[in-house]
Amino acid sequence: MSGRLPYRAFAEEAREGSANSMWEFISEHRDALMFGAYQHVSLVVQSVAIATVLALVVAVLVHRIPRLSGLANGISSIGLTVPALALLAFLLAVLGLGVLPSVVAIVFYAALPIVRNAVVGLNGVDTTLVESARGMGMSRTRTLMRVELPLAWPVVLAGVRVSTQMCMGIAAVAAYVQGPGLGSFIFNGLARLGGAGATESAVVGTVGVVILALVLDGLLVLLQRVTTPRGIRA
Fold first, then answer.
1. Alpha helices, DSSP H only, in 65-197?
2. What are phi and psi of 114, to 5 degrees?
3. What is the fold, at CATH topology level, of the domain defined by 34-232?
4. Packed helices 183-191 and 198-227: angle between N→C axes, nearest 10 degrees
5. Smallest Cα–Cα separation from 166: which of 121, 112, 228, 207?
6. Are 221 and 154 in contact (CB under 8 A)?
7. Residue 103, CB-side half-sphere exposure with 13 Å CA sphere
8. Which of 31, 70, 118, 215 is 20 to 30 A off residue 77, Cα-Cα?
9. SUPFAM superfamilies, from UniProt (predicted)?
10. How far is CA 157 from each of CA 1, 62, 201, 215, rounded to the nearest angstrom?
11. Which long-range contacts (CB under 8 A, 24 or more apart) does 6-15 make?
12. 196-232, pLDDT tens digit by residue?
């Protein structure tokens, strides 16, 4: 029993020292962390917004031309198997360092789940509702905007949520090509592992990405409640 007490005391002191060093790192780099968090969220939100628009265009084309459905699903499945580092390395050779390769990579990955969900959502709209809208004199475009897309929106937004969570991690990996965000803290910490502040940098960057992902998901849940037509809310 007496032999365990010094070890327990040592373990408690080590934990306290680790917590203190973590808070010291956060306080010393508070401005850089806040700016990195802003950049991370901005990169993901803007890229996912672009991906959503592109994915909806592709989904509408697939919905109008059913023979493209298999091709779209195949590309989506294959695209998700491409490692993020491999794609970023390719984009690095083509586009160089900075924001552009990061945006291209995130848009690519974000669009894939959204396309799949959008196609499923549009195909799941009751055809009798579409025929009724057309019978009332609505054009195909107006029927799409007033009937099909609103009814498919919850499924589309589910894809957006999946893409956003996935791309929060990919945005961290984008630090490999000097992309903005919290990934620089993770990469810097791993590169200096064993040095002063290295562990704190990697841990704070990783935890920050997780927290931001949870906050964004909560905002998307709120957006879904606000934008989903009242008649089809769960």
1. 69-79, 84-95, 99-123, 127-135, 140-143, 149-173, 183-191
2. -70, -40
3. MetI-like fold (1.10.3720)
4. 160
5. 112
6. no
7. 13
8. 215
9. MetI-like (SSF161098)
10. 57, 18, 33, 16
11. none
12. 778 888 999 999 999 999 999 999 999 988 888 776 6
d(CA 96, CA 34): 26
19: burial class by Cβ within 10 Å (0-12, 13-18, 19+)? Answer: exposed
Domain ranges of the chain: 34-232
**Spatial distance between the Cα atoms of 215 and 37, rounded to a whole number of angstroms:** 12
Instruction: Report which secondary-structure segment, H or E, holds 32.
Output: helix 30-64
Structure token digits, residue 76 = 């989506």
Comparing C-alpha atoms, which of 161, 126, 167, 163 is closest to residue 147? 126
The pLDDT score that the predictor gives to residue 183 is: 92
**Cα separation of the two ends of the chain:** 58
Contact 105, 93 (CB under 8 A): no
Q: What is the dihedral of CA 141, 145, 151, 152, to 10 degrees?
A: 80
Residue with the two structure tokens 């609103």: 150
CA 209 vs CA 19, 31, 206: distances in Å: 19, 16, 5
Q: How far apart are CA 129 and CA 149, in angstroms?
A: 12
Per the structure block, which two tokens stand in for 84?
Answer: 């993020």
Structure tokens given for 218: 């909560």
Low-confidence ranges of the chain (pLDDT < 70): 1-19, 231-234
